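@channel sequence for tomorrow's demo:
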Amino acid sequence: MQWHTEPALLRSNFPYNGGSPAADTHGIGKDMPEKLRKKITGFTDFLYLKRKFFMKKILLNYSLCLVLSSFLFSSHTTAQVMSNDDFKNLMTAEWQRAKVYTQEYLNTMPADKYSFKAVDSLRSFAQQMLHLATANVFLMAQATDQAPTSWASFGLEKRTSAQSRDSVMYFVNASYDYAMDAVKKSDPARWKEDKEIFGFKTTKFALMWKTFEHQTHHRGQTTIYIRELNIIPPQEKLF
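structure tokens (generated this afternoon):
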């Protein structure tokens, strides 16, 4: 009698019922030597498990590929590119937030303490805010090619008539309004142009953000002035 000894033929002898092929030996003749029958059964069981593992691995990799493809496709189709108007709206909103926040500082400092200095060698509270106002206009004018206001001068912070609370509030608020208007009127086509200022070279777009950083810096400096007077400064205003 001849027995099939090739794996493919041996596999056909097993009526697959969802279990291990070793559990079903009907396909192997009863007259086959027991030793040979066990070897063949073990070998076919090994092939079955190997194929089953391989198929599971293929299905797993295929599933992962589908998930990744779905994610990438979804990200690609839903990605949004900010337009020039989007950038302008974003910057304008941030300047508006900064204006409101700075006004909270101006309101917190008592009117009769605007001349207060944390240290004699530093600017007074009023001078810090007037410096902030002048820089808002000067730097934004450089970044956007807009004409500056007539009052914007770094000598403003030393002008005696500008030191009162009402005067400081006027110049500071006017400077924020100028910055927002400058952003709206700026030409996005020129944002990438280089601008040299104070010995440094940057782009006009970057200079707009550096201006914003500058006012944040000087407003932050006045926090210590307020605390030196045992007054609680305004809370952080990120939004």
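heads up for whoever presents: Residues 1-26 have pLDDT under 50 and may be disordered.
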